[in-house]
């Protein structure tokens, strides 16, 4: 979304965040139901880094566009 407006970039980030939260909750619940070994921290870590990167380049200091 190199030429997207700030509102479109914000909406894309919101969708990413709204998918992230229930997915991580689902994985955590599933992992606790299945028991040890506990692995849900790894998708949490990876996806959190992806979400942070998305924010950084879409809305944060890494965003090159000023609308």
Estimate the helix proportion, in percent.
Answer: over 70%
Low-confidence stretches: none
Number of helices: 2
Sheet having the most strands: none
Number of strands: 0
* Rg (CA only): 15 Å
Strand content: under 5%
Straight-line N-to-C gap:
14 Å
Kindly state the mean pLDDT as a whole number?
Answer: 90
- Give, in order, the helices and strands: HH
- General form: elongated
Structural class: mainly alpha
Q: Can you summarize this structure?
A:
The chain is an all-alpha fold and 67 residues long. The protein has helices spanning 6-34, 41-58.
Describe the structure.
With 67 residues, this protein is mainly alpha-helical. The chain has a domain at 8-47. It has two helices and no strands. Helix 1 packs antiparallel against helix 2 (41-58). The longest helix is centred in the N-terminal third of the chain and has 29 residues, at 6-34. The radius of gyration is 15 Å and the shape is elongated. The relative contact order is 0.18. The model has no long low-confidence stretch (mean pLDDT 90). This is 2TM domain-containing protein. It holds the Pfam family 2TM. Residues 7-59 form the 2TM domain. It comes from Kaistia hirudinis. Keywords: Membrane, Transmembrane, Transmembrane helix.
């Amino acid at each position: 979304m190199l030429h997207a407006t700030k509102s479109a970039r914000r909406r894309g980030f919101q969708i990413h965040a709204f998918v992230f939260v229930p997915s991580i909750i689902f994985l955590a619940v599933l992992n606790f139901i299945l028991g040890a070994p506990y692995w849900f921290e790894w998708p949490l870590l990876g996806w959190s880094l992806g979400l942070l990167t998305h924010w950084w380049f879409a809305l944060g200091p890494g965003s090159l566009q000023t609308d």
